[in-house]
Specification:
Number of strands of chain B: 22
Largest sheet of chain A: 7 strands, mixed
Shape of chain A: globular
Structural class of chain B: alpha/beta
Oligomer: heterodimer
Distance between the termini of chain A: 62 Å
Helix content of chain A: 25-40%
Radius of gyration of chain B: 23 Å
Distance between the termini of chain B: 64 Å
Helix content of chain B: 25-40%
Number of strands of chain A: 17
Largest interface: A-B, 10 and 11 residues
Shape of chain B: globular
Strand content of chain B: 15-25%
Radius of gyration of chain A: 26 Å
Order of helices and strands of chain A: EEEEEEEEHHHHHHHEHHHEEEEHEEEEH
Structural class of chain A: alpha+beta
Largest sheet of chain B: 7 strands, mixed
Chain lengths: 428, 461
């Protein structure tokens, strides 16, 4: 008997995943522990190991996005069983089609055609020229309407029989403005395209999260400047002792420590909106926004790495934990925990943004607050009646007014400001 | 018979199809019928009339045999035998329906039903309990004051189907599907026919170009067709009727042996206890329904002719299916019948069939269309079989080419229509029909040619 293989649920927040690439060919032999498939979640791509021995029957082809727990393949006892399984995987009405396909052993993705009939959200838009051309199941009228409107029909989900794209799907897509996104470069004759970024995987998740954040909260950002001159001189002392501390403590570690200090003064800043309840947490899991490589050289990715239980850590410990976390992520060794469970977020543009720029970052749901440090600059400041040069860091604080009102938010910002300007407070 | 999931009142084409579907879906179902299974359609409508038309066609085509020298005397025609043959067909089919119900384990109860409480139906004194009730009691010929049926001289559609002797002349009031079909039948058997219609053309709900061809054919065969003519009164002598009609030429009287009054049909919604249960009826007595044919009363569904949807057997069957699937917790593809996708079919020779948008409606509603008309005579097969009279008309959206309607008049029109109906249903475009190879010689080639005419030119046009 064949054993089911489902889209793994790698994190609580993961609802769907994209099969980025099967690392074993259709019908190929796999052993337990072999690298089986790369699954792209909302945040990152994982290589999944095979949990079984057997012959692989691929049901969901590369590029398709499916909900967690949906069957994406089977482990069969023989190559023949895998072929039979594939043939029977389609609907009865499609059986002849899939049988025909399995008789062509050179075809590496025989199931792609039949699977496209169930067209789970827009995943496999054959945009890149390298991707296999997938048969689009659409009514002739739908195809014509899409063509006339300049809409790439591959990005439309079908709701007709067996997921066929029909007239009303095209009308819905046009209403949603999909055609503008897909056709702008083509519409201006003579333009050259550098790249097309499919709205899938991480890009799709970022887009959905950002829109969801802006439409479901009452968020606002406040900005100020903190004098970090003293903080930097303390840091210098730490840096000098890099060898004995075991790390070159970063400015970010100090800022995070300052945030921890401020949370202890105003705990409600460390909260999440969870199904109609604001949950204020006792432990602090710091989400740190990280820039990631995009699908092409032109775009970027974004994810939030999570540093867990930092409420009692010192700056050295924070720095070490943060660097270890980043390393795991960059090496693709991160765990689901590394990507989930933040209670507050920090999104820094320091070193990238022009000096003095303040930001209004978008809240990372479900967190109710986000601290946004930016690039510091030396400025003339009046201190004790004298004009002196001090290093000023632009700071911003974005918060959900549904949870935090202005009064606690202002107290939080003041506490944070106080810790940044008087770093000895971090010893408290 | 306890713990029923569904009681259906009325075993017409809506009720019996619903019963079978319900049983297939695992609902414990009973169906109640006071007459014989099959309803009006099978007993006193579509089916016996189709047999009469078939026999009329045979009789009518004798003249073709005479052209090749075969001499057949017509005097031996015995209309009682014609009728007996059509009743035999009915008997075969009602037996078939009873068999299907039995095979599908539907409990068949003969009697007159009334809803007497929530989930309770009483049949001639016996109470039955059920979760759901489906009312599928159909319709009856509309009786208009002054034109009341006596079924001797003034006939309804049921009366003419029971008639065993041909009159010498008949006046038919109402040129809808039934009026036109009986005009054809009677005329074919040599009865002098006068067909009176209040609207501008016969078959007022069909396309004006297709109906014009039918009207021409009627006139050529000796039927007197009076359109834009109102029947104002009817008087009876011992053996004849006189109908007074009024049109642009003034008043005049039509005398005939019999009158067939086919003004329309009215719903059978009285005496069922519907209002008492909270089922709402409109002014004309139709049950008001929402999605999946649900009435205003919980767990009471209404389908077919008692609702204000096209009074056609195939609409009733589809509605029954939809309602049952909804009861069974399935999600039927559609929540209601889309009137634009319902085919109509009139079975005289030439046949008339159509669906969807009509040209006159497009004009009056300002819908921008493209149309293509191809004459039957352009398809060689029609000439070969001596049926060159007819046309195929396709109406498309001007911008998108979507097929919005199609209308066919001619030999086999009611069968041919389905290629175009499938095209509309599956959103297939005229260019797809045009590029599909059609067998030669067939009448279907006329459809290919008409499709070609939407954006180009037919080859044989």
């Amino acid at each position: 008997m064949a054993i089911k293989y489902v889209m793994p649920k790698l994190a609580m927040a993961m609802n769907e995943g994209t099969v980025n690439e099967w690392l074993v060919t259709q019908g190929g032999k796999v052993e337990k522990g072999d690298a089986l498939v790369t699954v792209e979640t909302e945040k990152v791509a994982y290589d999944c190991e095979s949990p079984e021995d057997g012959y692989l029957c691929i049901i969901v082809p590369d590029g398709e996005t499916v909900p967690c727990e949906e069957i994406i393949g089977y482990f069969c006892q023989s190559a023949e069983e895998a072929a039979d399984m594939l043939a029977s995987a389609g609907n009865a009405s499609e059986a002849t089609e899939s049988v025909k396909e399995t008789s062509e052993p050179s075809n590496e993705q025989p199931s792609s055609e039949q699977k496209s009939q169930t067209a789970v959200p827009n995943a496999s838009a054959p945009i890149a020229a390298t991707e296999n051309t997938r048969r689009i199941i659409a009514s002739p009228l739908a195809k014509k309407l899409a063509k006339d409107a300049g809409l790439n029909i591959a990005i439309v989900s079908g709701t007709g029989p067996n997921g066929r794209i029909v007239k009303k799907d095209i009308e819905a897509a046009l209403k949603a403005g999909l055609h503008q996104a897909a056709t702008a470069p083509l519409a201006q004759g003579g333009s050259t395209e550098l790249a097309r970024i499919p709205m899938k995987g991480m890009r799709k998740t970022i887009a959905e999260r950002m829109k969801q954040s802006l439409t479901t909260t009452a968020q606002l950002s406040s900005a100020w400047e903190s004098d970090i001159t003293d903080l930097l001189s303390i840091r210098k002392k730490f840096v000098k002792r890099e060898d004995s501390l075991g790390t070159k403590v970063s400015v970010n570690a100090f800022i995070i420590k300052a945030i921890v200090y401020a949370i202890k003064q105003v705990p409600i800043a460390n909260s999440c909106l969870e199904s109609e309840e604001a949950v204020i947490y006792g432990n602090i899991n710091m989400g740190i926004a990280m820039s990631m490589p995009g699908a092409t050289e032109y775009d970027s990715g974004l994810m939030v790495a999570v540093l867990h239980n930092i409420e009692n850590m010192g700056v050295v410990e924070i720095d070490k934990a943060m660097k270890a976390l980043f390393k795991r992520i960059r090496n693709g060794e991160s765990t689901a925990k590394d990507m989930s469970g933040s209670t507050i977020t920090m999104s820094t543009t320091a070193g990238i943004a022009p000096p003095g720029m303040t930001t209004t970052p978008v809240l990372n749901l479900p967190n109710a607050a986000l601290v946004g440090p930016s690039t510091a600059i030396e400025k003339p400041i009046v201190k004790d009646g004298q004009i002196v040069a001090r290093t000023m860091m632009p700071m911003s604080f974005t918060f959900d007014h549904c949870i935090l009102d202005g009064e606690p938010a202002a107290r939080f910002m003041s506490a944070l400001h106080d810790a940044l300007e008087n770093p000895e407070l971090m010893m408290a | 018979m306890s713990n029923l999931d569904l009681i259906i009142i009325g075993a017409g084409p809506g009720g019996y199809c619903a019963a079978i579907r319900a049983s297939q879906l695992g609902l414990k179902t009973a169906i109640i019928e006071k007459d014989t299974p099959g309803g009006v359609c099978l007993n006193w409508g579509c089916i016996p009339s189709k047999n009469l038309i078939h026999q009329a066609e045979l009789f009518h085509s004798l003249s073709e045999m005479e052209q090749v020298g075969v001499k057949i005397g017509r005097s031996g025609l015995n209309y009682a035998h014609v009728q007996a043959k059509s009743r035999q067909v009915v008997k075969t089919l009602t037996g078939g329906v009873a068999g299907l119900l039995k095979k599908n384990k539907v409990n068949y109860i003969k009697g007159t039903a009334k809803i007497t409480g929530k989930g309770e139906v009483t049949v001639d004194g016996t109470k039955y309990k059920t979760k759901n009730i489906m009312v599928a009691t159909g319709s009856r010929p509309m009786n208009i004051p002054g034109f009341e049926f006596d079924e001797e001289l003034v006939l309804s559609s049921s009366g003419i189907l029971a008639m065993t002797e041909l009159p010498k002349s008949i006046v038919i009031l109402g040129a809808g599907a039934i009026g036109c079909e009986f005009a054809y039948i009677m005329n074919s058997f040599g009865v002098k026919v006068t067909l009176v219609e209040f609207a501008k053309h016969i078959l007022p709900t069909e396309d004006f170009e297709t109906t014009a061809i039918l009207a021409q054919s009627f006139k050529r065969n000796g039927i007197e067709v009076l359109t834009s003519t109102k029947a104002t009164s009817l008087s009876k002598d011992k053996n004849s009727v006189t109908v007074t009609v009024e049109n642009a030429d003034g008043d005049h009287k039509i005398n005939a042996d019999k009158a067939l009054v086919v003004f329309g049909r009215e719903p059978n919604t009285q005496g069922l206890g519907l209002k008492e249960m909270g089922v709402k009826l409109d002014q004309r007595g139709y049950v008001q329904i929402s999605d999946y044919c649900q009435s205003h009363a919980t767990n009471i569904y209404a389908i077919g002719d008692i609702t204000n949807t096209p009074a056609l057997a195939h609409v009733a069957s589809k509605e029954g299916e939809m309602a049952v699937e909804h009861m069974a917790g399935l999600k039927p593809h559609a929540m209601k019948v889309d009137a634009n996708s319902v085919p109509s079919a009139i079975y005289c020779e030439p046949q008339v069939a159509g669906f969807g948008l009509r040209e006159d409606k497009a004009i009056s509603e300002g819908i921008k269309i493209k149309k293509s008309v191809f004459n039957y005579a352009g398809a060689g097969k029609t000439i070969a079989v001596g049926k060159p009279e007819g046309l195929v008309k396709i109406i498309c959206d001007k911008k998108t080419d979507e097929i919005l309607g199609a209308h066919i008049v001619g030999h086999c029109a009611t069968e041919l229509l389905h290629e175009l109906l499938l095209a509309k249903h599956a959103e297939i475009l005229p260019e797809d029909i045009e590029s599909m190879i059609h067998a030669h010689p067939t009448i279907s080639e006329a459809i290919m040619e008409a499709a070609r005419g939407i954006n180009g030119k037919p080859i044989h046009g």
